[in-house]
What we know:
Elements: H1 7-46, H2 48-71, H3 78-101, H4 108-140
Helix pairs in contact: 1-2, 2-4, 3-4
Amino acid sequence: MQKIKDERLKLKNLKDIRTLHIIQTLGIIGILGYDLVTKGMDGMTNNPLWFVFLVTITVSAYLSMNISVDHESEKKNPKKGLKISLVILVIISMIVGFLVYFTEGFGIFDGILFGGIIFICGLAPVYYLYRLRKKKEEDVE
Length: 141
């Protein structure tokens, strides 16, 4: 196979890949939906397609962050954005922790655990976005 050199063909190829990705994702959602209806939530999450779906969505979200930072028209201060994101993340983590604590059957340890998990899971994308903005700022200078 020869490498594609024409920009129009490259763009068409990327659009075709995007269409295939959408069809594949809809197929996975359909299969998982069927498992949810027939086998319940446990049956759906036990399906290996569940793991593939979660990985696909996570990678897609990280890739779209990269594009959105490149597409930002106004210059944003990376440190200010990091501080705002961390404050919002802490607030969301605390709200989730309090809600879990006040839910019947859960205690303070469960609330701290759930809030901590939300904070740690949210920290990765916040820091990744900060690094992308910092890199873009350095490239501009």
